[in-house]
């Protein structure tokens, strides 16, 4: 069982390390539990650091900026902004040919849509994530998303239930 990231990781100054988006989803539950002004500045600082990096290499960092913004919007309950940022992250990762980051953006978008009750969109994003991870060659992520899809149910507007 893997523990969440240490808060100390986020205390480092951006120039001390390459900003890494992968611990981000694990950070948000920590931020929800601890209501301090220091923790509330972390997303803003991380996005700012990635925007600085993006100014040096747009093709490499644009999708990461969009994904962090999407996660932050989702956390704050700004669902329309989150949807737009997830879409931008997916499109940007695809155009940069970062299939693994496209998969991550699809997966996180799936969790966002599931959280807001749009199960049909969530299922679609999880399915896209599974395809990206398969193309990337990560059987572990494919298996993880497959388990998510196996237990996922979508209630269609007609009242029928589709098990995925």
Describe this protein's structure.
The chain has 164 residues and is mainly alpha-helical. A two-stranded antiparallel sheet has the order 1-2. The N terminus is likely disordered.
Biggest sheet, open or closed, and with what strands and sense?
2 strands, antiparallel
What Rg do the Cα atoms give?
16 Å
From the spread of the alpha carbons, the general shape counts as globular
Percent strand equals under 5%
In helices, the fraction of residues equals over 70%
Helix count equals: 8
Q: Strand order of the main beta sheet, please?
A: 1-2
Order of helices and strands: HHHHHHHHEE
Structural class: mainly alpha
Q: Average pLDDT value?
A: 78
Number of strands: 2
Give the termini distance in whole angstroms.
Answer: 27 Å
Residue ranges: pLDDT <50 for 5 or more in a row? 1-22, 154-159
Write the layout of secondary structure elements.
Layout: H1 7-11, H2 24-33, H3 37-56, H4 58-76, H5 79-95, H6 99-115, H7 119-136, H8 139-150, E1 153-155, E2 161-163
Antiparallel strand pairs: 1-2
Main traits of this protein?
8 helices; 2 strands; 72% helix; globular; disordered N terminus
Describe what is shown at a glance.
The protein has 164 residues and is mainly alpha-helical.
């Amino acid at each position: 069982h893997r523990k969440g990231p240490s808060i100390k990781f986020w205390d480092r100054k951006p120039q001390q390390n390459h900003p890494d988006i992968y611990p981000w989803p694990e950070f948000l539950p920590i931020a929800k539990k601890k209501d301090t002004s220091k923790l509330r500045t972390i997303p803003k600082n991380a996005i700012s650091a990635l925007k600085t990096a993006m100014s040096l290499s747009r093709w490499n960092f644009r999708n990461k900026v969009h994904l962090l913004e999407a996660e932050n919007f989702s956390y704050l309950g700004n669902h329309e902004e989150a949807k737009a940022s997830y879409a931008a992250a997916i499109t940007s990762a695809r155009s940069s040919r970062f299939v693994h980051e496209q998969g991550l953006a699809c997966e996180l978008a799936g969790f966002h849509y599931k959280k807001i009750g749009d199960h049909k969109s969530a299922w679609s994003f999880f399915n896209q994530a599974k395809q990206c991870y398969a193309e990337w060659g990560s059987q572990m992520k494919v298996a993880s998303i497959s388990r998510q899809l196996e237990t996922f149910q979508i209630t269609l507007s007609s009242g029928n239930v589709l098990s995925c």
